[in-house]
Design goal:
Order of helices and strands: HHHHHHHHH
Radius of gyration: 31 Å
Oligomer: single chain
Strand content: under 5%
Helix content: over 70%
Number of helices: 9
Structural class: mainly alpha
Length: 253
């Protein structure tokens, strides 16, 4: 009975303490987050709202823009084909290849990004040019990069499919024609590079398979023996260095 009274008294004391501290908790101001549209009192407020809306739209489309209009396509395909040629299907992991491709893409595209920043982003942020002019100026360096890497055959394909007259110069090529032609050219170039990378490793596979067949080891997988030789060859020639150098020089030259 004594213990029961002690327990009941303890519960009542804790309850009393909580009730006494409730006003202190109620006095705390919690933030209220609202997302909506309000009337702009000045043109500057309206401009800031439009800028935020444009930035959010660009962030949403950023992955597609990076993939379709930059060097990312060629770089990531060549790296993936290199991994497949070596025979290590999971090494390096996809995250490592994608990360390396993104880093190399930013390195290759840095001159283009700097031009876009100087001619379009900074003047627009300082209210020196309108949004339409900023978008037009931002596309010019990107178009120059894509035109340099796009083949005439691919451009001609989409111009003919669009049933339009042959442009007199590169500035008359529309973006909806240039972008798919650029993507097709990058796919073609990346697979050409991948074929060259596959050749020495293919020779190793053929040699190893021939030796195993001549020795009567028909049940021993050739990949088990060939993979170490591929890795040794790749390390001895410093393969990642050569591939990275070739990829970057292919865009700069």
């Amino acid at each position: 009975m004594k213990h029961r009274n002690v327990l009941l008294g303890t519960i009542l004391a804790v309850f009393y303490t909580i009730m006494q501290s409730m006003p202190a908790f109620c006095a705390i101001a919690f933030p209220n987050i609202n997302i909506g549209m309000q009337t702009a009192n000045t043109p500057q407020e309206f401009t800031q709202g439009v800028q935020i809306l444009v930035l959010l739209t660009i962030l949403t489309l950023a992955p597609s823009i990076i993939i379709m209009t930059t060097a990312f396509i060629r770089i990531v395909i060549v790296l993936a084909l290199t991994r497949q040629a070596i025979g290590t299907t999971t090494l390096p992991p996809n995250q490592v290849l994608a990360g390396l491709a993104i880093i190399l893409t930013f390195f290759v595209m840095s001159p283009t990004i700097n031009k876009i920043n100087e001619t379009a982003i900074q003047p627009y942020m300082k209210n020196q040019i309108t949004q339409e002019v900023a978008l037009e100026k931002a596309m010019q360096p990107l178009r120059m990069f894509m035109l340099k890497q796009t083949g005439e055959k691919e451009l001609g394909l989409f111009i003919n499919m669009a049933k339009m007259e042959k442009p007199k110069n590169a500035s008359e090529v529309e973006n909806y024609i240039l972008i798919p032609a650029f993507v097709l050219s990058e796919l073609k170039t990346s697979f050409k590079i991948g074929f060259v990378i596959f050749l020495p490793f293919l020779v190793i596979d053929i040699v190893v398979s021939s030796i195993l067949v001549s020795m009567g080891m028909l049940f021993l997988p050739p990949a088990t023996i060939a993979t170490p030789f591929k890795l040794i060859l790749f390390v001895m020639i410093d393969g990642w260095y050569l591939i990275t150098k070739s990829l970057i020089e292919g865009f700069i030259t």
